[in-house]
Amino acid sequence: MGIPHLSRRSFLTAVSAGAAAVTAAPLLAACGDGGSGSDGKVTIEWMDIATTEPSKTLYPKIAKAYEAAHPNVKIKLTNLENEAFKSKMTALTASGKVPDIFVTWGGGVLKQQIDAGLVKDLTSSASGLLNTITPVSQKPYQFDGKTYAVPYDMGMVGFWYNKRHFDKAGIKAPPRTWAEFLDDVRKLKAAGVTPIALGGKDKWPGMYYWAYLAMRMGGMTAMQQAAKTNDFTGPAFVGAGRHLKELVDLQPFQAGFQNAGFDTPGGEAASVGAGKAAMELMGQWAPAVEKDASGKGLGDDEGWFPFPAVDGGQGVLTDVFGGGNGHALGKDAPKEAVDFLAFLVNTENEHELVSSGAFMPVVKGAESALADPGRKQVAEALGASTGFQLYLDQAFPPAVGQQVNDSVAALIGGKATPEQVAQQVTKAAKSQ
């Protein structure tokens, strides 16, 4: 984020991280105190990142519908902007108290919470629910044969682009190689179009480029080897930095990108949604956030293509980078929390979530609710994938993920070399 690393794979807001954290503090102080009262009433503390439409409206609606069907249950929902959420969860994890239900992108961050004994093993208690969900969407939350979260969204990162801008620049088809991509950036600039929007302030959007380039350079083998050895100084990662610098040297981003957030006014999503930039490298949630942030959205003018191959690289177009969004349960969460998660992705709610344009299907057979051509492409690419890499800022422990984001941001800002990025990430990984 990763949104979801919103994504990530994440539904974000223009509220600053500090303000969001302060606003939520009174409610979040009660984290871990959910459960049954002496009067038989059950309170479920739910902390999430649904701060933009449509999830901003859908989640409270679903929670209220559940409460209406279960009068003894009260769901207290708190939504935080992505970065504020990650900061808050880091603090809560350190305190030993987490919410009854909280969003997770899986990987090393979730593993750290599991190792601390803070997360419920859902393998048995939620087996009926998990059997209705696609196996691939459960992978980020599985460790040692056990499942620790229920997914509600699953997808991958790719380029979302404005077809009108590509036509204006004389680009006949999306690029399939990095060299073609750089040529297209030059064509867009020559046509007077800002090629790429980037939320540099949030850092994780820039990480996507470095991660994908490393995958295209070294293939899944390089990614797996780095995870095993905690060594990111190999040719794939240094090469990724060099290729990213090739892009940065073309000055492809919107003015002021280093101070722009992903979904803030004038930021990445708003720039693409308002037609001020030709494309962004983002997860499956991009069109919905573009529309929410800009008030417009591109509609039929929006297209999608996978991250290009690198000439001479070991990776292939079918190796994908991304992840999903899931909900984990705190160790003290009441049994009703599992029932609520089942309600969240029941047939009716799953169809509404997917058809809203903000979520990719996780329930078996829910693909039929996809109407947007770009999102169908994402689903098809994910289904045909030959390799899958979770967002790097989620795949590894928090300190490593943060170093990846910080170092890549420094490279994009001209304050670090490709070699320094690789060395800094390696140092952080080996210190864990």
Description:
The chain is 45% helix and 14% strand. Helix 1 packs across helix 3 and helix 17 runs antiparallel to helix 18. The radius of gyration is 21 Å and the shape is globular. The N terminus is likely disordered. It is an alpha/beta fold. A hairpin with a 5-residue loop joins strand 1 and strand 2. Strands 1, 2, 3, 4, 7, 11 and 12 form a 7-stranded mixed sheet that branches. A 3-stranded antiparallel sheet has the order 9-8-10.
Largest sheet: 7 strands, mixed
Strand content: 5-15%
Oligomerization status of the protein chains: single chain
- Count of DSSP E strands? 12
Helix content: 40-55%
| SSE ordering | HEEHEHEHHHEEEEHHHHHEHEEHHHEHHH
Distance between the ends:
20 Å
Give Rg in angstroms: 21 Å
Average pLDDT metric: 89
| Uncertain stretches | 1-33
Class computed from helices, strands and strand pairing: alpha/beta
User: How many distinct helices?
Assistant: 18
Overall 3D form: globular
InterPro entries: Bact_solute-bd_prot1, SBP, TAT_signal
Keywords: Signal
Signal peptide: 1-29
Organism: Actinomadura nitritigenes
Supply the key terms.
432 residues; alpha/beta; seven-stranded mixed β-sheet; three-stranded antiparallel β-sheet; 18 helices; 12 strands; globular; disordered N terminus; Extracellular solute-binding protein
